[in-house]
Amino acid sequence: MKVLVPVKRVIDYNVKVRVKPDQTGVDLANVKMSMNPFDEISVEEAVRMKEAGTVTEIIAVSIGPQQAQETIRTALAMGADRGILVKTDETLEPLAVAKILKSIAEAENPDLVILGKQAIDDDCNQTGQMLGALLGWPQGTFASEVKKDGEVLHVTREVDGGLQTVALTGPAIVTVDLRLNEPRYASLPNIMKAKKKPIDMKEVAEYDVEIANRLTVVKVTEPPVREAGEKVEDVATLVEKLKTAGAV
Amino acid sequence: MAVLVIAEHDNASLTDATHKTVTAAGRFGGDVDVLVAGEGAGAVAEAAAKISGVRKVLHADAAPLKKQLAEAMEALVVPMMDNYDAVFAPATTMGKNVMPRIAAKLDVMQLSDITDVQGSDTFERPIYAGNAIMTVTSGDAKKVVTVRGTAFEAAGEDGSAAVETVDLADGDLKSAFVSEEIVESDRPELTAAKRIVSGGRALGSAEEFNRVIEPLADKLGAAVGASRAAVDAGYAPNDYQVGQTGKIVAPELYIAVGISGAIQHLAGMKDSKVIVAINKDEEAPIFQVADYGLVADLFSAVPELTGAL
User: What ipTM was assigned to the predicted interfaces of this complex?
Assistant: First the structure.
C-alpha cells in the first residue's frame, strides 16, 4: 500500500496563545511552531504499517510557507520516504487544502490518506472528511485502531458513546484520534538521514484549484476570563459553601 | 429562508443536542425543518415533531442510514440542499464526521463548533482550544454549520410538526458498519449531565479512580469525567475525556479531583456554573478557574466529602 500523510505546521501545543491587540488574529511572531500533534500520530501509524509490511511507501505532504519544509523533515525523520511541499504564504481554509490534496492524490494514487482529526490552531476538524467527499472515497474518522484485512480496511472509531468499527473498501481516508498510538521521537541518525530524503517543491499555482477564502474574519478576541474563587479550609466548609450556593 | 437540522439519535430516542441545535438554527432565521435519518426510527421522528419551532420533520428510513455513516448521510442530504439555505448539526462525533463531506460537495466552507449565531452570515467560534474566540462571516451561498451544544439552550417541546418521508437514492456505498461497543451506564450522559465528577492522573490507577470517584458521583447523581492524562494512563475510558480533544461540558456543578488543569482540560469545562477543585498542589492551575478550591489529599478528602453530602 502507498500512503499519503498530510502534515500541518502549527503553533506548538505548549505555547500560550496570545490574541493580538488589534483583534486581527493571534500573535505568531517569534513563536515556536511544530507539527500538529494529531498529524504526528498519523505519521507514526503510517510508519508502523510500513514496519509491519502492509505499507510500501509513505509520502508526507504539507501545504504552507517555506518553513513547513521543517515539518516535512520531521515526518521524514520519523520514517516517511519522501515529501511534497506546496508553498503558499496565505492561510488556506480546509476546503482549499482538501482540493489541493485531491489533486495530489490523483497524481500519486495512494491506497490510503491518513490525517490528524483536527489541527490545534483552527480546530476545524474538516480536511479529511472534505477530501473523502471530493475523491468519493470512504472514511474512518477519529480512529483508535486501523487494521488491514485483505482488501478491506477496518477502522475502529472513537464515537460519543464508545467505539464503532467500520469496514472501508478501496482507497480510503482515515483521520486519527489520540489513543491510536504514541508517536516516536526521531533519533539523531534518522534526523541526519532525513536530510537526504527528497522533497518535491511545488507552488499552489501549479494546481488548478480555486483557493480564495470563503470566510472573512471579523475579529479575534480573548475569551471571557473566569475569576478564581476562594480556597476553603476543609471538607465541612466546602459542603457548607456548596449548600449555600445551591449546588448540592 | 429555510434551515435543515440533522437530528442526533440512536433510532430509539432523540438526544438533547438536537434541541440545542434547533435553537441555534432558529437564530439563523427562516423555517426550521428537522431531518431524522435512521432505520426504524419512527419514534424519533415523532419526538422531533414535538420540538418547539419546527416547521416539519423529514424522516428517511433506510438500512444504510442506521448508524448515520458519513457517506450515506452525504448521499441523502446533498440533494435536499436545493431547498435550504443552511444545514445545521450538533458538533458531536456524528456531526463532525458527516458535515464536512456535505460542505465539500456543496463547495462551501463549513463553520465548525459555533458558539453564537449573529444573523444569517455571521458566527462565533472558539479557536486554539478556546484560547481565542473568532467572529467570522461566510460569503458562501449555503451555510454548513456544526453547533456546540453547551452554548445554546435546548428548544422546548410544545410543537406539533408534520412528518414527511424522504428517500435515500440507491447508490454504491464503500463503507459499512461492522460493530460497536457502546458503554452501558446508569449515569447521565456527560454532555447532558447537570453534575460531573472528574478524576485526573493523581488518582494513580484505574482501581483507585473507581474507588474514589464513583461513590461521590453516585451520591450526587453525577456523570463521571476524566482528564486526558487520566485517560492516557488508562485509568478511565476515552469517552470519559473532558477537554479540547474530548467532550465539551458545562454542567451546573463540576468537581475536578486530582486534575492539575492543563489548558486543554480547561477548554472543555470552564463554562461550568460552579467549579470545585480538590488537589494537593496549591499551585495547580485548576484553582485559577475554581469557585471553591480545597488543597487536600484527595484520597481522604473525597471520601469525607462523599460521606458529608
Answer: 0.95
